[in-house]
Specification:
Distance between the termini: 30 Å
Number of domains: 2
Radius of gyration: 23 Å
Oligomer: single chain
Largest sheet: 7 strands, parallel
Shape: globular
Amino acid sequence: MSGIRSVRALMEFEDAEADLLLEPVPGSESLLWPLGRWPVLSALTSGEVGTTAAVRERQPLRNRVLKAVRRALPNPRLARRAPRADHLFLVSGWTRTPVADGYENWLVDDFARALGEDAVVVQDAYVDLLSRGHERPTLPRTYTYAREGERVVRATKPLREHERARVEEVVREWFARIDVETTTAARDRAVTDIVGRAAAVPAAELSFARLLDRVRPHRLYLQTAAYGERSPLVRMAHASGIEVWEPQHGFLGPDHGAYNMGRAMSSPALRDHVPDTLLTFGEFWQEGLSFPGRVIPVGKPSLDRLSRTAPGYEDRPKRVLFVSNRYRHDRLEDVVLALRAALPDWTIAIRPHPTERSTIRANVPRIADLPCVEFDDTADASAALSRARLVVGFFSTMLYEALAYGCHVAVVETHASKAYASERVFPLRISDETDVSAVVAATAGPPAAAEREAASRVWRRDPVRAFLDAARL
């Protein structure tokens, strides 16, 4: 059972109010609730968890000009040129690991490569004649959905006044029935988000129908399928007899609202909008889930491969990596100052969340200019973990990844940490600055057997073999 009250309340709402969840999206056979449940949950949890909002920056003029040029160029990598394949991977394209001749998509490339000619990868990110070096995927059968995404944006028409009014009425009724207090601003943001999502559905469905007709897969692997924004695509795949599997990309657990659902989500009408199978990094991630589909632990290929070649604990520099989450920057500063005092000859690196890279220094003014503190914003998380002996944070998938790299992990105790950073996996906790002494004592040597055992539950070994065994079921 979830420790986050908002997640529990959402599931209880789905248990008790099934009739309120069957409103259709205007102009579509898809349902509004799967499309809108994540914005609703985000509004409910905004006050409870307390992360800061991501900063969206306007694209530089150069990027906007480049996008216009790309639309005009011929492109053999367009999704409409993708070949037929039994297995279609539809992903963001931003889960990247740099390699010598480009990048690999750590989420799916190993799986797709193992399937050979039976698989094709279609990504939202651009790949075309202008892509060079680190912008080029190394998997040959990778195509871009970016131009289709832009076409969907251009083809999206605002809802008619009566349609918009109906969507707003339904969403506000959801909030009225869920027993969690929210601010008016949070509810209004959710309403606006859901109205926008609903308006885009007809154009998105038309675009996706063309992709399915082109590739004709038997199985679709859809990144973030459970989050709901692409729930109409899940429904369309099911209507065509296509299984939908979702590969885990980040944190999972009983406190993650996207993957924990009430009884109504198992009803036929709503179940059509949810992936059939969830592929997880290991057995740990499925513990306590209330997910209506099948869950199969397969592992994470890139982490399995890279962690095996990481330097030994004693061969690494004396380095702390603090993983930020756009969360409690004041506590981050307090802990860093305490670590600096306790480990004066160590370097402390702050790794910002990708959405706060431009703001992190301003968010932590008390430590930004300290000589022992630096900021790590490299794209390669593996390199950052391979150079650390101690990893500290509130809650992040990187804390779990650090286990595979043989790092000690200390969790800064907060309400959110209790939910998202399991004490069974991370017994080393920092409730106040006096706990830093225990953390320092742990760094005297490499992780003990209990920590290595925790890593084996979190990260399954030989993931490609496990995936192929699952894919042939």
